[in-house]
Amino acid sequence: MSDEGDFVLIVTIIKKGWGDEVVKASRKAGAQGGTILYGRGTGIHENKSILGLMIEPEKEIVLTITESCIADNILKSITEAVKLDEPGTGVGFTVPLEKVFGITRYFCEMQDRSQKSSGS
User: Fold this and answer.
1) pTM score, two decimals?
2) Is 22 exposed, middle or buried (0-12, 13-18, 19+ CB in 10 A)?
């Protein structure tokens, strides 16, 4: 378990079908992966109807846990990939994590990289 406060959760909420693009962009920027969840939007851009029937706007929520030192690069990559700076495309935010558990593989990979870079 890590309780050093050096991890953040990046949450990206986008239109259905864009989750894979978010994961690709975050991996390109250094993230190890992500989790895609499905949801339903209720914002101002979702209040549309066809023939008087309300359309249920489907969303994808991508959760990415990463080291805080590379979070800005990942945010920039995601924003560019799915154009989050344009209205109605989605929203993203980060949450600092106090404790992280269940990612022992990640710590092993970090340790291996550290040992290789130090010449051990």
Assistant:
1) 0.76
2) buried
